[in-house]
Structures are given as structure tokens and as C-alpha cells.
Specification:
The protein is of the alpha/beta class. It has 11 helices and 12 strands.
Length: 290
């Protein structure tokens, strides 16, 4: 009988994780099935509890559950404990371990795909959820010079800034819709979008989190949204002459980290990238002919 693992989030209409994770299991001929598990917040605790079944390897966790899940597992690894968010659950004989591979995926994609070294750089981070927490701690630990966290709910941005301040002293929180966003963005070396604005099926697919005309040509704009591959924010960045990085590399690298936690095997990242790109192409085809 095949072991089960999957993605817990809500909604999940945009996900391609089953495609590239299944490709990784199939590469090693492992008897594992990876599923999408759309899970309403009211059903989250029961879903996490089901991962204790001996036939389960665990799960990936995505929006909006990454922070709540941290309180539903038996223990947290060092990364998840520091970040306060879980994106991977591993079932072990003595219970569930909450892990975070988002920080690894973020920094790896930033360096390997984006060719960007964060040390000494000024960063603006849009959003304050689970993915933002991973990015903020990773940037602080990698020696970013300064970090401005911009979120529509200022209280959440301020709370995240307070949590990171022990690692990075030059950190500030502002409203994403307020008057300070333009000045912060214009001075940034790196602009990171961790919100779902611009995501296909996310309710704001045609929108950008930033007003037009404020992105500097010298910046790298990193949009964690991977579907569509060219988001409204990345179109803005390209028009400004800025460098662009989409969310697919982070998605695959964080997934590779999770695969290694579940299996103890080296993730076949090239296979995973190929499957992820094909899945995105398949998702785009109906729109192209509609």
C-alpha cells in the first residue's frame, strides 16, 4: 500500500505541488502518493490529526495555515521554532514534527536563480504572513543591512519586526497602503512580495501590491507568486528596467527540502523543476484558448 503525503491549504486551485513532488517520488520508484488537500480553517485540526496515521509521511502546509499549524504538532525544528511558522510536517514514530523549509527555499532561489547576495543590502518585504516570516528571518541571518516590512495590517508587520529585531537591528514596519511605501521602495536593493496579490485564483489576480512608477531600475523584484509566471508586479518591475525573479524556484527548492525530510534521499531538483514547469504550462493552456 502506498504511503500518503500532501499539501494542506485553502484554497488550492493554483497549486502545482502534487505534480513536481510526485515526480520526485516516482524518480526513486517510491510507493508514495502526493495529494492536494484543500482544508478549510475549521477542519485544520482534524486534518493535522489524520497525519498521525501510520500510512502517512506528513504534509506540506501553505496559506493560510502555516502559523496555526505550529501549535498543532508535537515539536518544532529549530527553523520552525525561530520563524514561528510551519510549511512541512514530518510524521515520526513518536509524533509530528513541524519544520520550515521556506527559509532555505527562499535564500537558495535568491542566490542560485536570482544571482543576488543579500548581505549588506536594503530590503523591502511586502506581507507579514508565514512566508514573510521565513523570508524576514532568513534575510536577517544572512546579513541584510536593513529591512522594511510593509503590510496592510500594520499591527502584523510591527509584530514580525519585533520578532526579527534581535537578529537585525535596522528594521521597520509600515503600512502597505500608507504614504511611506514609496520612499522605502525607491531606496531598496531587493523588493520581495510574499502576499497572494497577483496570484491566479487568489482573488486579486490582475492586481499588484505596489502603486505604479515607484520601482527603481537598480532593484531585484522577487515575487513569491509562481502562478502566473509573469505577475502584475513583475510586469511593473520589467517596465522599470529592474531585475525580476518569480516564485517557481522558491516553490521547488522548499519542496525539495521537504522531500529530503520525508525520505532521507537527495531531492532530484532537475526532475522537480521540469515537472513544475510542465504543470504550469498545462494550467495556462485553457486560458490561452478560451
Amino acid at each position: 500500500m502506498a504511503s500518503l503525503v500532501g499539501l494542506i491549504g485553502f484554497p488550492l486551485g493554483h497549486t502545482i505541488s502534487p505534480a513536481f513532488q510526485q515526480a520526485a517520488f516516482d524518480y526513486y520508484s517510491l510507493p508514495v502518493e502526493y495529494h492536494a488537500w484543500p482544508t478549510h480553517p475549521d477542519l485544520l485540526e482534524a486534518k493535522v490529526g489524520s497525519l498521525r496515521d501510520p500510512g502517512s509521511l506528513g504534509a506540506n502546509v501553505t496559506v493560510p495555515h502555516k502559523e496555526r499549524v505550529a501549535g498543532m504538532v508535537d515539536r518544532l525544528d529549530a527553523s520552525a521554532q525561530a520563524i514561528g511558522a510551519v510549511n512541512t510536517i514530518v510524521r515520526e514514530n513518536d509524533g509530528l514534527t513541524g519544520c520550515n523549509t521556506d527559509a532555505y527555499g527562499f535564500i537558495t532561489s535568491l542566490r542560485v536563480t536570482g544571482g543576488f547576495e543579500p548581505r549588506g543590502k536594503r530590503v523591502v518585504l511586502l506581507g507579514a504572513g508565514g512566508a514573510a516570516r521565513a523570508a524576514a528571518f532568513a534575510l536577517a541571518e544572512e546579513g541584510a543591512a536593513s529591512l522594511v516590512i510593509a503590510n496592510r495590517t500594520l499591527r502584523r508587520a510591527s509584530s514580525l519586526a519585533d520578532d526579527v529585531r534581535d537578529v537585525l537591528r535596522d528594521i521597520a514596519s509600515i503600512s502597505l497602503d500608507g504614504p511611506d511605501i514609496e520612499g522605502a521602495v525607491r531606496k531598496a536593493d531587493l523588493i520581495v512580495n510574499s502576499t497572494s496579490v497577483g496570484m491566479e485564483g487568489g482573488g486579486a489576480g490582475s492586481a499588484s501590491p505596489l502603486p505604479p512608477g515607484i520601482i527603481p531600475s537598480s532593484a531585484l523584484v522577487y515575487d513569491m507568486v509562481y502562478n502566473p509566471t509573469e505577475t502584475p508586479l513583475l510586469r511593473q518591475a520589467a517596465q522599470a528596467g529592474a531585475a525580476c525573479l518569480g516564485g517557481l524556484p522558491m516553490l521547488v527548492y522548499q519542496g525539495a527540502g521537504a522531500f529530503e525530510l520525508w525520505t532521507g534521499r537527495e531531492a532530484p531538483t532537475e526532475v522537480m523543476f521540469e515537472a513544475a514547469k510542465k504543470a504550469l504550462e498545462r494550467m495556462a493552456q485553457p486560458r490561452a484558448h478560451s
